[in-house]
Amino acid sequence: SDTTREAAAEEAEVGQGWLHAMGARILEAGPSQVVVEMSVDGRHLQPMGIVHGGVYCGLVETVCSVGAYQSASLKGMLVVGVDNSTSFLKAVREGVLTTTGTPITQGRKTELWRAEVRNAAGRLVASGQVRLLCLNPGDPLAGKGASGPGHKDHPDAS
Amino acid sequence: SDTTREAAAEEAEVGQGWLHAMGARILEAGPSQVVVEMSVDGRHLQPMGIVHGGVYCGLVETVCSVGAYQSASLKGMLVVGVDNSTSFLKAVREGVLTTTGTPITQGRKTELWRAEVRNAAGRLVASGQVRLLCLNPGDPLAGKGASGPGHKDHPDAS
Amino acid sequence: SDTTREAAAEEAEVGQGWLHAMGARILEAGPSQVVVEMSVDGRHLQPMGIVHGGVYCGLVETVCSVGAYQSASLKGMLVVGVDNSTSFLKAVREGVLTTTGTPITQGRKTELWRAEVRNAAGRLVASGQVRLLCLNPGDPLAGKGASGPGHKDHPDAS
Amino acid sequence: SDTTREAAAEEAEVGQGWLHAMGARILEAGPSQVVVEMSVDGRHLQPMGIVHGGVYCGLVETVCSVGAYQSASLKGMLVVGVDNSTSFLKAVREGVLTTTGTPITQGRKTELWRAEVRNAAGRLVASGQVRLLCLNPGDPLAGKGASGPGHKDHPDAS
Predict the structure, then answer these.
(1) Can you tell me the ipTM of this complex?
(2) CB contact D118 to A (< 8 Å)
(3) Cα three-residue angle A125-A102-A127, rounded to 5 degrees
(4) Which has fewest Cβ within 10 Å: A87, B15, C12, C109?
């Protein structure tokens, strides 16, 4: 229902969305670099006791989307991710993961961002990239006009 | 600490891991098809009010890993995902998502699985693939010998 | 120089471009399916005597681009590929490869196409996908206005 | 036939394979960096007069495979590429392209290499990565035991 949808969107805006569900914290969010931190706990694991691949993908998606959102907003545009490709390099059981996103290209139609996930020792444990499409405000998006988090001065577009 | 790690792994095994964090339910888990269902709620959204890309990646990762785990276990092996590539085809604000994974190749060294995510109307909203590496039990994995969920007859390797 | 560029483009238009360099032949080219055939010979191999991965990528790129070009032209648009992701499933030493491309999504801003490469026995030997960006004629493209192969009624946009 | 196959493999070994078909030259080939150069000409273009995406994929595949081959041979192993993912960042009509490959991970079971393609002005025009599987000599590969280019001291495994 529309009420459910509005409530769900509201929840996301006040930080109850996927960023919160992952337990991630945005440390830095600019148009040329984004840094997110997350402490591994039981929720992040798969049954072999290592961090689930979907967690790395989610971290990569987050830093790339937040960065492209910052970058696109300088042009008065919004972004939406279209392709995420993430590689898992070293299995992790615990500790703090730091994910850093940087732009590869920032065009008028798309942006491409790359992310690296490092463990507490600074070792690369996952890397990935996200292709994002630039939208104009009001472009159709899932049955509504595309809009950002709006009046809440909120850094995370993802 | 080791105690924390053991507890975290235990939690994952009893269903408190990423599958639970996503709110996903395994409907079918075999070596040639896996189906997972998830109802979108506020936790899954990003600030524009649509499902976060990391959620689709996590669903794709789950069905592919669970399937490859089932398939590899027929050969006495385990699997670990190495690359996830997921495309977002249609933005979603609410409803039930059904994700189905099927094998593309099932080799002695790697498996490649493909997944499709459909909304309640049956429309394809995301698709992706995961490359998984086959391991022998006891192969090194994040400082321990690789092992599955063990004595708990548990279908989810991811 | 401009003269060299014009000559190079002209060459591509009359069939001396990459399609010809690969030794591929377009069997079918429509907005919902494209089929290309190629006989493996010495030029396609890498030093281990199997088909070079770049050949499969090139086949995938070709069928997806030709198809999206056909599809976009129905909307008066052009396309340009932005991301190609190809998986190699079975090594091949010889024989005819048949590559079939079909659309996953055909939007106003991007298209996503998927391709399968099969050997003479019909076995899947490679698969992949290409994300393509839709352009309006005259949009900037490498220092010129984007344009298709023009007056030559030519099916291959890639 | 076997005679055709032997001849085809022989051709590849003496430099008539895909590297030659692309018109690429290996400038450097070591286990931690590979550099390949290629001058764009008419054969590399698609009908819009820009370099065909398959050419970038082929360059990425080549530097990553040659590098992983060098790296694996230090362990007495061979490699075979399994997934290539290449992004096209800026359309090119002419000039020299320089492609550099560097390792992301070099494991016992797989290697992951990354490549960047730059134009004559040093601008990044494409980037990509290749996942490669490590094989022991004699492991089955397309109906024969895997073997490298053998007695010919030849740097290119791809």
Answers:
(1) 0.86
(2) no
(3) 20
(4) B15
